[in-house]
Amino acid sequence: MKHQISFGWLLLLSVTFFTTVSSAPGRLSPVHPKIKPASVSEDFETFFYTQTLDHFNYKPESYRTFQQRYIINSKHWGGAEENAPIFAYFGEEGPLDEDLPIIGFLNDNAPRLTLRINISKQHRFYGKSVPFGTLDEVINDENTRGYFSSAQAIADYAEVLVYLKEKLSAQNSPVIVIGGSYGGMLASWFRLKYPHIAIGALASSAPILYFDNITPQDGYYSVVTNDFREASESCYETIRNSWSVIDELASRPNGISFLSQRFKTCSPLGTSSELKDYLDTMYAVAAQYNHPPTYPVTVVCGGIDGAPEGTDILGRIFAGVVAYGGERSCYEMKKSNSASQTNLGWSWQTCSELVIPIGRGSNDTMFPSAPFSLNDFANSCMSKYGVPPRPHWVTTYYGGHDIKLVLQRFASNIIFSNGLRDPYSSGGVLEKISDSVLPIYTVNGSHCLDILTSSQSDPQWLVMQRQVEIEIIRGWFAKYYADLHTLQI
Amino acid sequence: MKHQISFGWLLLLSVTFFTTVSSAPGRLSPVHPKIKPASVSEDFETFFYTQTLDHFNYKPESYRTFQQRYIINSKHWGGAEENAPIFAYFGEEGPLDEDLPIIGFLNDNAPRLTLRINISKQHRFYGKSVPFGTLDEVINDENTRGYFSSAQAIADYAEVLVYLKEKLSAQNSPVIVIGGSYGGMLASWFRLKYPHIAIGALASSAPILYFDNITPQDGYYSVVTNDFREASESCYETIRNSWSVIDELASRPNGISFLSQRFKTCSPLGTSSELKDYLDTMYAVAAQYNHPPTYPVTVVCGGIDGAPEGTDILGRIFAGVVAYGGERSCYEMKKSNSASQTNLGWSWQTCSELVIPIGRGSNDTMFPSAPFSLNDFANSCMSKYGVPPRPHWVTTYYGGHDIKLVLQRFASNIIFSNGLRDPYSSGGVLEKISDSVLPIYTVNGSHCLDILTSSQSDPQWLVMQRQVEIEIIRGWFAKYYADLHTLQI
To answer: What is the ipTM of this complex?
Structure first.
């Protein structure tokens, strides 16, 4: 009955996105921004579902529809007779396009899971699922962008899955939803809100507790700091001391120009903040995507620590920039004005509901103080979009406070996977909630590492993490099929 | 620590409502239409919460607010130090007004539950919680009525409860949500969607499975039929045979006028359907609210069976009308045109999302055939409101199919209470889902009987049902407080 089958898998666009308010990095993408995706496998077929614009209201406008893209690999699907499992990868903040083969978790583990079908769904308003125009157009339309919310997005997924199961006569096929980063949040929220549609969720690096005051504001940058400190105490000290050196220099006559020279910027710096933001982002991205085998944090610190003896602090920091970015004629430190979908969409999402309060106190990290001010943030959102954020809606709708108390006798079948070197792990679920709502984390892992394609060079702890996840999911299936049998469905 | 306290409780308006499409009765109100509520206890304080119009979108209009009424009895509340429980009664299809003391479950059981506070919340668009005008105005505004949905309603309750717990510093007080009929659906759905806000739900007579094709269409009228048949086989036979007699008479010259005479109608019947609808409704209401000590079904059958020997079928049926409604100079059989809130609101709700397919085949009940046609229903909704219903959204959003398979390893702390003589019990949860998601039903019970005020004359099975429910809820509290202690919250 159970064939060993080859299997492909999907993932979403890997662009970096930056919230342009506060110093928070706000990237919530499974893969490092520089990873270039390979081409789409031929096994993937693209479809469009005529999706309801507004699931929760019944105004005439609510009935408008748009074409939502989803992609299916059903090459090896043998039909619904065996109630074979369906895996659904949830789109997040980016187009569901060029980048299918990066997330390899399912691809690699297909034989062990006897997978049959997998579906990847594009989050509304991203990629080819933008209603009524380009994202640029709709994000500038206060009416249309108002429908761009997480609750509508998972309701979209619910509708598509119900439709597909019916179309495939696969009503009894167990569905597992999977996502990384923001997509991981959506996956765990989906299991909580739609248990009748998905029997389980793998939520990789999903910081569902980084809302309200559940996680300390400095959680993100504390982990970045720890990553660097564990890599090298001297590297950490150099970075920690560098900010005041930059400030001091910048305050001198021609100081900015001098900084531009020392950091070989492609165009002259306007302010020292441009340099500091660039460095801030570099450290954060290196820590978040501190993947084997290269381990970018080690690379940056290799540059900083490896500079010739006698090199001053700025010289060491620049050596870190070079080590990380490679030898170049100049370094572009200005923020790009290019409005990528992720920038556009994520900026709106964080300004409407996904308010992730990342901040820093004065002495808690290796970074300068930058506390998160909800007030300032709300004002900046108001001026951008004309409406204030609803910072408490996520915890009102999805929960988060006292999660163990709430979920230990409610809910089942959720894996919250994390790597503790991922700064977002500070807002992840790291405690065991119950026998089937489980954290699976690695001390040395980084952002969404477990759902990326495996490689010969993967360390043993990563191989183990994936194996454990697979075993847990196999256990869910076993129970599900036993239940199906017992209930004679 | 635990005081025995006196306690008051709330309930919602007890008007009957009729869907005006199909022959389905569609009443989903906890109490019989004729019950006259007593006045509001002085222990109840009324407040208004500035409620968000649209929780799920972020359009400028979504941020509009309206004043939502809630009522609190906190007379005996000793503060939050003891994490004393909060009971929240969910408003349903009617104003939350004159009618507080009818639903007596909590009132009667306060000492055993060591209750401290209870909150009753008015469903959006009913009573004094109508946004932007009278219900009549907003129900005629295609834009505003679009926000009148169950998902928005339970999101309202979530916001109010989060707000109140914070205001009262009662974050660790366990909340139990309670509702009857449609309010019972909302209570169970709330527990499923917002487990972080309510630790349990008592859903009395909530037909959450009367959607899609989960429950056979004839479920409702089959129970009505059984009720009459169990009361009296001859009564059942008389009713079953009466429809063709009426039809036959109506087809004769002056037949309608003759029927008007025989049934002493206050104004002449226009068609025989008026009479048949009147009788249909009388039987259904008698069965649904077949409460002790009078048992209306027995009353109707007493009239029918007790007519003098030799009385013809029409005479017997009329004797049933008299027995049920009392001796009068005439009987009003025309449907009232008065647009009660419940009529207005429920008609819209059933035409938008709450499509309950009640129908009858040709020989499955004591009623004439009247199959539910989704197509006809949708057309009638279109012509009334300009938008079609979304008949599958309830099961997509809340589930319902294979409920045991879905919830036995997910969810906890829900009581689905029913009385099997209630026609809506056919769409209720009657099987044990798990150790804490439980049906508590009585063979002889009727609609929402368990949450009505107890009386000296209550039969032992009803007393027992309430006791069992109380014991279960006490068990939830015990576990919750133990968890709180273990987790040192």
So the answer is: 0.91
